[in-house]
Amino acid sequence: MMAGWKTLSGPLGAQMDQVDTSPIFQMGTTAKAVYDSSGSITLHGEFIYQTGVASCAAGSWVSLNPDSDVVALLADGHIGGAAVAVSAAVASSYGWFQRTGKASALLAASVADNAALHTTATAGQAGAAASGQSEITGARAAAASGSSAANTDVELCYPVLNSLAGA
Asked: What is the band of 5 on the pLDDT scale with cuts at 50, 70, 90?
């Protein structure tokens, strides 16, 4: 079996890691898909099609704004839905962001396996230290991160940002 994205439900031809220079699907379109790596499923879940954001890389955490279809790199104080970029959907581009399943996401250094996740001082990154940062409910580390920030396996179930500062 060839490796690649297989759309299980959603728009015909949806390729989860594709970045588009003009929108080819309606903003907010969802799809369920799997990534088949040499015959074994490695990533799966639900994805949402959105406008990209500056400095977005594959694995960046973003906050979702359902009123404007615009995403922002995850930052402290954000509230509402969150997702992980599947590809580098930068400003003036469009792409897919993962909301459920196992994903590869940017985690700070030294996050323990199964740790609850929070925003960090670095936009687009999640970490385990609460220290006044927003909590990401519905997301957990699925592996331990290394000694420096890197894309690491996480488990997502419609992550939501909750400000610990009461904002």
From this structure: low
Strands of the chain, DSSP E: 4-9, 30-37, 40-51, 61-65, 70-73, 80-85, 94-98, 100-107, 116-119, 126-127, 135-141, 150-162
Structural domain spans, the chain: 50-167
| Distant-in-sequence, close-in-space partners of 153: CB < 8 Å, separation ≥ 6 | 102, 103, 104, 105, 141, 142, 143
- Cα–Cα nearest to 139, from 119, 118, 161, 155: 155
pLDDT in tens, 125-153: 999 977 667 899 999 999 999 999 999 99
Place of tokens 């957990």: 140
Token pair listed for 143:
């592996």
Q: Which token pair is 22?
A: 């003009």
Beta strands at 126-127 and 80-85: parallel, antiparallel or unpaired: unpaired
Instruction: Look at residue 106 and tell me whether its pLDDT is greater than 60.
Output: yes
Cα 100 to Cα 112: distance, rounded to the nearest angstrom: 20
Tens digit of pLDDT for each residue in 29-55? 988 887 766 555 566 789 999 999 999
- Cα 138 to Cα 116: distance, rounded to the nearest angstrom: 9
